[in-house]
Design a protein that fits this description.
Serine Threonine Protein Phosphatase 5, Tetratricopeptide repeat, globular
Length: about 170
């Protein structure tokens, strides 16, 4: 079992974990049965998840520059590592490098589609940029996918507070 923080990287202290069995060497129909040569059949190379783990640790500590470096290393080693792309995007958001964040989110969407977690993170990204209209659109799409997701609900509350603050300032 491999722990990862799906998209809650941008939310307020709400973490998630998921079993990523597809990274198992026996995934996709492979098994450990020996072939006629005595070697395990159908094994595939599984890249180390150390850069992803280190990226998550640095992100959680608030060291977004180091997190970005480790997530970038993870996606260079395994371009299909969706959690690493999401972590990279979240790190770019926290560094204010929104164009890079958008590219990383686009790649993650290309790998998995518009998941609730990615939509949530994009909504949070738009909040960081001050684009509350785009943030609401993304967060409402995430809410429709998962109306009881605590991270999405938390970010919608945060968005509502941001909009109230803007009205008071006007």
């Amino acid at each position: 079992m491999r722990q990862w923080l799906p998209i809650a990287l941008l939310a307020f202290a709400l973490a998630g974990c998921q079993t990523l069995d597809e990274w198992s060497p026996f995934a996709n129909g492979s098994d450990a049965r020996a072939s006629t040569t005595g070697e395990p059949a159908n094994l595939k190379f599984v890249p180390s998840n150390e850069p992803l783990k280190t990226g998550l640790e640095n992100f959680e500590r608030g060291d977004y520059g180091l997190a970005e470096r480790h997530f970038r290393d993870a996606v260079e080693k395994n371009p299909r590592d969706t959690p690493a792309w999401i972590g990279l995007a979240a790190s770019y958001d926290r560094l204010g490098r929104y164009e890079f964040a958008d590219r990383a989110y686009d790649i993650a969407i290309g790998l998995t589609g518009e998941t609730t977690e990615i939509l949530n993170n994009q909504g949070y990204s738009y909040m960081l940029r001050g684009n509350l209209k785009a943030a609401r659109a993304k967060l409402m799409k995430a809410y429709k996918n998962a109306p009881n997701n605590p991270t999405v609900l938390n970010n919608i509350k945060l968005l509502n507070l941001s909009q109230k603050m803007r009205r008071r300032e006007s």
